[in-house]
Amino acid sequence: MNKHNELQLYLASGSPRRHELLTQLGYRFEVLRLDVPEQREEGEKPQDYVCRLARDKATAGVAAAPTAGVAAAPTALPVLGADTIVVLGDRVLEKPSDLLDAKDMLEALSGKVHQVMTAVALATPERCDVRLVTTNVAFRKLDEAEIEAYWRTGEPCDKAGAYAIQGIAGKFVSRIEGSYSAVVGLPLLETDLLIKHHLEQSR
Predict the structure, then answer these.
(1) Residue 35: per-residue pLDDT
(2) Of 137, 156, 138, nearest to 146 (Cα)?
(3) Catalytic annotation on 83?
(4) Of 35, 48, 56, 83, which residue is the catalytic one?
(5) 11: β partners
(6) For 37, what's the count of Cα atoms within 13 Å in the CB-facing half-sphere?
(7) What is the pLDDT of residues 162-189, one digit of tens each?
């Protein structure tokens, strides 16, 4: 393999949004599609929950990388894992199960400020470094008709908090404080620094 085409890391995520954002950073990577349980533990704080999920995905990727069937590369390559949750007060808004669930979430977010927490983890067999980015997102008031119309687009079905800021739901957002890319699914600044640090340390 040409040195300029050699892999630098694996991405432990099937999310097309994370794939696009990591591509934007210019790194050479392969995707690992893993089935990692996403279940919040009783009493677990939202920030601890999202950091644990990112760590679990990255470390699962480290275990899977040598037999994942992707392009040949040293098994010591780092694995990037990430997870995003939507938090309103003490409530963690996961992916909606149906229209009623999505309506409940979007009605709760309507006219309020919530937090989007994205954790990114970079793991090797020796260590795992995690960064947490929290962004404040304000929604304008939403009415029932537009919430139902939004659900019919199909966009909210597999999104935390039942919305995608980079899609149709961008029109619901009146203000954002923090990292836009983190709300989409991968904080560009923190991810870049994490990978750069590892690559510099491994030279």
Answers:
(1) 87
(2) 156
(3) yes
(4) 83
(5) 31, 80
(6) 3
(7) 999 999 999 999 999 999 999 999 999 9
Joined together, the tokens standing for residue 178 give 């923090």
Instruction: Evaluate whether 131 touches 174 at the Cβ level (below 8 Å).
Output: no
3-state secondary structure the chain: CCHHHCCCEEECCCCHHHHHHHHHHCCCEEECCCCCCCCCCCCCCHHHHHHHHHHHHHHHHHHHHHHCCCCCCCCCCCEEEEEEEEEECCEEECCCCCHHHHHHHHHHHCCCEEEEEEEEEEECCCCEEEEEEEEEEEECCCCHHHHHHHHHCCHHHHCHHHCCCCCHHHHHEEEEECCHHHHHCCCHHHHHHHHHHHHHHCC
Token pair, residue 123, equals 């793991």
- Tell me, what amino acid is at 85? I
